[in-house]
Amino acid sequence: MTTRNLKIRAALVGLGLIATSCGPMQPHEYTTSVAGAYDTTSRYDMGAASGMLQSSASSWSSPEVAIVKSIIDTVRSSFGQDAANGVSNYYGETLQRDVRGYLLAESPPWAMNISEQLGRVDDQLKTVDIQGSWLVAEKQGGQYEVTQIWSGISVFKNPSCRSGGSLLCEQFHFSTESLLEAEYPIEIISSRAGAIASGQALVVDAHQVEFNYGRLGLYMLINQLLPNRADEGGIGVRDVALAAVNCRGLAGRLAGDDDVLGWEFGGTRIGLSLSQLVGSCEEGVFGSVNRFVDNFNLPLKMDLSGSAQMVDTTRDGKINRLDNGQLSGAMNLASGRSNAREGDVSGEFTAYRVGSFN
User: Fold this and answer.
1) Which residue, among 310, 342, 287, 117, has the nearest Cα to 198 in the 3D structure?
2) Are 322 and 231 in a shared domain?
3) Residues 228, 92 share a domain
4) Are 203 and 170 in contact (CB under 8 A)?
């Protein structure tokens, strides 16, 4: 190429009328298509919700109270109200001490300190990674509609690892299928948003993302408390609670060698058999579990908007990648409850084209 031709080419490049062959071409250099399907990875900073789960542990702080209450209810149904009052008034505190002593000695350490375990889950949920898809459909006037579909959620096993700057931190991964099949299903609401291509940016309008933050925390908790059974699927809160308490072992401790827990009132002896004690214990555990689970119905709503840089890596007129995606907005957790929480939420994302609509 002559010197004159090189100067002409350089001038055309400078005016943006032709492109160089080095690197990806930017969208403003020619007509591009954003529409298509993209694999996306997003990371949300939800630190504003921190502490909500740990505050839900109070209903499990004293399981011995619920177990003893259930034992006294069994006395009432078997021997009447007077007998139940007698056991409660004269033996209630002793029973609670015996049950608590057994749980402290025989149960896993976390069983009597569930608040600490929930604090760990709270920390894990400060940063949530989302795997999913974006379907970008073109509308009239250069407008687009973005449909976001989540396929999985990941959190760091040890949050301090990531905050310390390490890039080799292990994560827990949960598919949306496993979340939907959980004992208390966690439905991830697919979101839709308007968008517009502006220069090199795809600007995403305000949209909402909703899921049950409390149910997700509960699912994470029970899978971490029984890690050896996590791959089996179908682990329930009752499974965790019964594994921790071991009602048959507790009943045997209370009943003694004759397999009867008995009391004497006015020369009359009454008592509960081993099987009655096991049943009473399980009823008490289930009652505590129900109250515990109720505290985890914490719906989360995030109102978000943002933008990303469009990149055409193959210079074929189609956007292949969305880089440096940024999202920001507000979150509302457990709206309508006394412990509702509001705060800021932010996120970042990348997206890679995996298909086209034409």
Assistant:
1) 310
2) yes
3) yes
4) no
Cα separation, 154 vs 80, whole angstroms: 53
C-alpha to C-alpha distance for 304 and 329, rounded to whole angstroms: 5
Q: Tally the C-alpha atoms within 13 A of residue 229's C-alpha that lie toward its C-beta.
A: 13
Please choose, from the candidates 352, 301, 308, the residue with its C-alpha nearest in 3D space to the C-alpha of residue 326: 308
Q: Which domain holds residue 13?
A: 1-25
Q: Where are the alpha helices (DSSP H) in 111-187?
A: 114-124, 159-163, 176-180
Taking the CB of residue 95, how many other CB atoms lie within 10 A of it? 19
Torsion on CA atoms 304, 129, 186, 175, rounded to nearest 10: 140
Phi, psi of 221, rounded to the nearest 5 degrees: -60, -50
Q: Please, what is the end-to-end C-alpha distance for the chain in angstroms?
A: 39
Q: How far apart are CA 339 and CA 55, in angstroms?
A: 9
Q: What is the mean pLDDT of each run of 10 residues along the chain (358 residues)?
A: 44 40 49 89 91 80 92 97 95 96 92 88 93 90 90 91 79 91 82 91 93 92 74 70 92 93 88 97 93 89 96 91 97 80 94 86
Q: Do residue 103 and residue 135 come from a single domain?
A: yes
From residue 198, alpha-carbon distances to 201, 202, 310, 319 in Å are 5, 6, 10, 13
What's the token pair of residue 59? 């209903």
Residue 265 CA to its chain's centroid (Å): 52
One domain, residues 173 and 303: yes
**What is residue 334's three-state secondary structure?**
coil
Q: What is the DSSP letter of 25?
A: B
- For residues 123 and 13, membership in a common domain is answered with no
Do 69 and 16 belong together in one domain?
Answer: no
Rounded to 10 degrees, what is the CA torsion of 88, 94, 96, 97? 170
DSSP code of residue 88: H
Residues 319 and 357 in one domain: yes
CB 46 within 8 A of CB 103: no
Domain match, 65 and 159 both? yes
